[in-house]
Amino acid sequence: GYWCRFWCFNSIVSKFVRDAKKRVQVVSIGCGLDTLPFNLLNEQPNADFVYFECDLKDVVQQKIDVITKHSDFIGFVKQKSSTELVLNQGKLNRPTCKTFRLKLSSV
pTM for this one? Predict the structure, then answer.
């Protein structure tokens, strides 16, 4: 189930970004630990897109913790130093990937 959903979503979003004639935005609600924005950056380094990820506070923090501890991810999101990676209360804020923490009681 999970792999099929991931493969389908990855294929659709990759094609959407690749075929776009101008900058596109992708919004992933309930993104979890999804690696799709990193896959897109790896497969299409010159693509013009912004990937917005939204999930619960603890999930977003867990993802940022994983990113900061693994060199495979750090290269995709790092600015001048790893201390610039995590900004504004545990949010990832890069030109191509931004995370937002959701509070279900306010949705």
Answer: 0.75
